[in-house]
Design a protein that fits this description.
Elements: E1 9-10, E2 19-23, E3 27-31, E4 45-56, E5 60-71, H1 74-94, E6 102-110, E7 115-125, H2 128-141, E8 146-148, E9 152-154, H3 157-185, E10 188-205, H4 220-230, E11 233-247, H5 248-254
Antiparallel strand pairs: 1-10, 2-3, 4-11, 5-7, 5-8, 5-9, 6-7, 10-11
Length: 255
């Protein structure tokens, strides 16, 4: 995965009379000083942690198709490559691939008595079925001067950011449930959140499992499934949350 994992530190603004102090420069404590008319609840809080790990399958596949030719003249080599490129682009259009997802590059080289031309078509698919269909058609219809490489799978940046956020939110929800159960066990009610801090955020892609599913299988289909599994993205989040503790009878009055 590219990019450094995000870290979140959020604290709600204190109510009137509330103060923060930093002791040891390592732990953050909150000292509550409620108005005189309010019941004394200073220092009543529960501190918990929550963790979550989520995964997401790749949602993009990049297919690279290369064309090569060697001819005695520039016109001959250009025409040879152009005919094959046009067939490839036509196959993409028939499968409703947008032009913005297609990149074509060409390189011409001069030899001693001939010309070499290489062209590459790079296509980003979001429809894996269409990708496989295009690949099969090109392998079947075109000669050995055209090479279709195995697809490369990945998760789009938007999907990766969404996965990170979902992992953080799920970790906070896990901490909230834990704090509520603790308060219930103590005969108290869970109050407002005082501090939410994401202490660790990690992300990585899947790795092949020794002896796992697909081990010992052969063929292109097994290789394709393995590529998808290796490109599966994982995100984990570990959070620290502090909640105010309220007496149950006070909580009832507020409702």
């Amino acid at each position: 995965m590219t990019g450094s994992p995000s870290r979140v530190f959020a604290a709600l603004m204190p109510a009137g009379g509330d103060t923060f102090r930093d002791e040891n420069q390592t732990n953050l404590f909150r000292a509550l000083q409620p108005p005189a008319c309010e019941a004394q609840t200073s220092g009543r809080e529960v501190q918990v942690t929550g963790s979550c790990e989520l995964s997401a399958l790749p949602d993009r596949a990049t297919l690279c198709i290369s064309v090569s030719s060697n001819k005695d003249s520039v016109n001959d080599v250009t025409n040879s490559v152009s005919r094959r490129l046009e067939y490839i682009l036509q196959a993409l259009r028939q499968h409703e691939v947008k032009g913005e997802n297609t990149t074509v590059t060409k390189v011409l080289r001069r030899g001693d008595n001939s010309y070499d031309m290489e062209a590459e078509v790079s296509v980003v698919f979001t429809d894996f079925t269409a990708m496989q269909s295009v690949s099969n058609v090109l392998v079947e219809k075109l000669d050995r001067t055209v090479t279709v490489s195995p697809p490369s799978f990945s998760l789009s940046p938007d999907s990766l950011n969404k996965l990170r956020r979902q992992a953080c939110l799920a970790a906070v929800e896990s901490a909230r449930r834990k704090a509520r159960e603790v308060c219930g066990m103590l005969g108290q009610a869970l109050g407002r959140p005082l501090l939410v801090k994401e202490e660790e955020a990690r992300e990585w892609t899947g790795q092949p499992e020794e002896g796992g599913a697909g081990a010992g299988q052969r063929g292109a289909l097994a290789s394709l499934q393995d590529s998808v599994r290796k490109a599966t993205a994982f995100a984990s989040s570990h959070v620290y949350v502090s909640f105010e503790i309220r007496p149950k009878d006070r909580a009832r009055k507020k409702h």
